[in-house]
Amino acid sequence: MISGNHDSDDRLNYGKWTFEKQGVYISAIYDGKLDCHVLKDGDTEINIYMLPFVKASHVRHVYPDETIDTYEDAVRLVIDKAGIDESKCNIVIAHQFVAGKEDPLLSGSESIGTQNVGTVEKVGYDCFSKFDYVALGHIHSAQKVGRDLCRYSGTPLKYSLKEINDKKSVPLITVNGKNDISFELVLLNPKRDVRHIRGKMEELLDPANISSPDDFIYATLTDEDIIDNVMGIFQQSYRNTVKVDFDNSRTREVEKVDISQIAENRTFEDLISDFYKQVYGCDISDEEMAVMREAAREAGVLNEAD
Questions:
Q1: Which residues are bridge partners to 35 per DSSP?
Q2: What is the pLDDT of residues 154-182, one digit of tens each?
Q3: How far apart are CA 165 and CA 194, in angstroms?
Q4: CATH assignment of 9-187, among 3.60.21.10, 3.40.50.170, 3.40.50.2000, 3.30.230.10
Q5: Burial of 103 (0-12, 13-18, 19+ CB in 10 A)
């Protein structure tokens, strides 16, 4: 078990020595040593290396005299310092943004941490050339990176709306020696799927059209009229509805607006009034404007004197 970029290193590392006595190995903090555990089965012996998520700053702290400018510099140095015997069967588990000739397919929250793809955060898959199999975490979609035996396992469940069409699986690795490694993707069928449905609310919630009501539902409504308590209505039929949005003439008109020019030389009241009328088709009342002004003051958008 290794730490990822969303984990608390110290929390995950707590009690590692106790767990190790039970055959559970944790490597959450890189301290200059690439942890390795040896598995034996008859004549087959495998070195399993554990590389937790590292940044250049982490490794620079351990090796202050080395030149480390990028994530790739850091990972290469960690591996070089590990003294890996390439004549043996070596497997590494790692949590980094690793790319081949093309960048891996992003599908979920990992894209937040990889907005600088192609610059400091990318690590080339050839960094791991000393390993016979590379088991990667971080990217949500299962896929190979550069070579068949360098793979992201992907997440076991769909954690993002972008993953709706993904087929989730677990890679089952078979090792019979250094030059005899294979894998099989075992498909996973969750109790509740994540689905995107689209159309008018009356059609989507028609009992004849409702299927698998316990699934996690993302609904896009094409109704032109504003519908009050739309989430509550949907959850009466789909109890695990996670999001409802609209795609109609009003929302498409909003998308066309150049946001950078909206606020130029305009008062708070003008902006709120225009937005309200665009969404609801009528003028905002004085009472509603007062509520918006109070919310804006609390958020620091308006000064107390405004």
A1: 50
A2: 999 998 888 888 889 999 999 998 989 99
A3: 9
A4: 3.60.21.10
A5: middle
